[in-house]
Amino acid sequence: MSESKARAVLAHGAWADGSSWNKVIAGLRSEGVKAVAAPLPLTSLADDVSALDRTLERIDGPVVVVGHAYAGAVIASTGDENVASLVYVTALAPDEGETVADVFYRTEPHPQAPQLGPDPHELIWLPEDAFARAFAQHASPEEQALLAATQRPLAAGCIGTPVGRPAWKDLPSWFLVAEEDRMIPAENQRFMAERMKARVRTAPVDHLPMLTRPSVVVDIVLDATGTDRAGGHLRRRLITLLTLSRQLRTSVISRRGARPTRRWPRPGKGEVLVMVDIAYRTADVDGLKVFYREAGAPDAPTLVLLHGFPSASHMFRELIPLLADRFHVVAPDLPGFGMSDMPARGDFNYTFEHITDVIDRLTEVLGLDRFALYVFDYGAPVGFRIATRHPERISAIISQSGNAYEEGLSEGWNPVQAYWKEPSAANREAIRKLVQPETTVWQYTHGVPDETRVSPDGYGLDNSYLTRSGADEIQLDLFLDYATNVALYPRFQEYFRTSRPRLLAVWGKNDPFFLPAGAEAFKRDIPDADVRFLDTGHFALETHVDEIATAIRKFLAP
């Protein structure tokens, strides 16, 4: 898309840096708006205003200045004549003679807000756990950890300095009120926005929407620049930054000068790059915290993604953005996996039937009365149990190595089957290698023609979860209980024959656990089943996410 004359300078708040604007910058540039982040030292209000002014000096022509949180005071203190308007993103807007602290502490804090105070160096740090509790509760756990690890402290003097006449009294201003902000209560934001006579937008976002809901921030900045969002006039193509980076990674030119196997994806004529908002939530399911990822319009057809062993919903991290423009996607972590609660074995019955009870109840808590199921590995017996309980709720099934036939079990199950037949301590120890780090890596890479296409992120996170105290014993319990899934195969098959759900099976033909025969067997009970094989292993999404996403979109098309 050709670049417009619109310009934007973005100023970060406390405990962050310019990279907090990365997603917004990408979104604005895709709309033709040149955007840059101003690096603030956070050492004093005067220092920060000077740093902003130095950035503004590099910009020719009118510019919109955007401030987050503390930076609201900074952007209102610049005297640069090129500033045409101001945008406050859940920001603080002290009036003349007031300090940042005056407006920050104007109302009662949120119950989850952290206690703040300077250290011996007069620097204010955000407690590590506050990033998940209050600063960015809608961010992923991985993003929250990175925010905590890279935070920049705020000098106490920054919030104690009275400001002069704020620029918002003389310039048109916009204000994004974050309804779910736990750092600056929405009530306080509305007070400041009304006092400023700003154009107000509200959204159910947290304190860091630049990271967790960047499209909301892009929209209000576009409004301030007077730029029409291209999506209102052009057909959009769903290509996220995550997909771009993945495709760049696989487009490697060999030392011999071979052509790349894949091209960098560029928008076609009449298309623009757009970003997808993925929410990271938890639900209370009868006292158990269940973590889930959610994307897409709630009124779109729903697709529930159920992960396998030893993974969690992060295995769908690249698939979700490729589906969210068309579907309402919900991907939970099963109890005992990922970010969901992992109660002690004595407090929770780790069986597939009980796990199904929890996920079944989750769909009710979330109000999902009809949905398609994507089942992988352990997700299959959970999903098939739900389908047999509520056949009227299931609109379709996508099985990716989600087995329901004995002929689909490979010899790799032999040690586990021996444990089923004789659940002795010796047989339990014999399968303990299945929860070792090297086995996780093997699961991801076995049967993959080019192992360099398998990102270590997936198996690295899985292994991190497996190292938690008691996690190995829980997984060994589930290996023993897997026998109940095989016992239910006839019941699952009866459901297939009688309900005839639409079914797409997409399997790695080199899967070491679930053989192609298991996929072909679906046709025995559902003659119209669409069965496809990919040249990969067990975790097919790691290498063939584009192919699987395309197949799903065509399969579920109205």
* N→C terminal distance: 31 Å
Counted beta strands? 16
CATH topology of the largest domain: Rossmann fold
Strand order of the largest sheet: 9-10-12-11-13-14-15-16
Q: State the domain count.
A: 2
Rounded to an integer in angstroms, the radius of gyration calculated over CA atoms is 26 Å
Count helical runs.
22
Task: Estimate what percentage of residues fall within beta strands.
Answer: 15-25%
Task: Determine the mean pLDDT.
Answer: 89
What is the overall silhouette?
Answer: elongated
* Major sheet description: 8 strands, mixed
Q: What is the share of helical residues? A: 25-40%
Oligomer: single chain
The CATH top-level class label of the largest domain: Alpha Beta
Write the layout of secondary structure elements.
Blueprint: E1 7-11, H1 22-30, E2 34-38, H2 45-57, E3 63-68, H3 71-75, E4 83-89, H4 100-104, E5 123-124, H5 130-135, H6 141-150, E6 154-155, E7 173-178, H7 186-196, E8 199-203, H8 209-212, H9 214-225, H10 241-250, E9 278-285, E10 288-295, E11 302-306, H11 319-323, E12 328-332, H12 352-365, E13 371-376, H13 379-389, E14 394-400, H14 414-421, H15 425-430, H16 437-445, H17 456-466, H18 471-487, H19 489-499, E15 503-508, H20 516-520, H21 522-525, E16 530-534, H22 541-555
Parallel strand pairs: 1-2, 1-3, 3-4, 4-7, 7-8, 11-12, 11-13, 13-14, 14-15, 15-16
Antiparallel strand pairs: 5-6, 9-10, 10-12
Helix pairs in contact: 1-9, 12-13, 14-18, 16-17
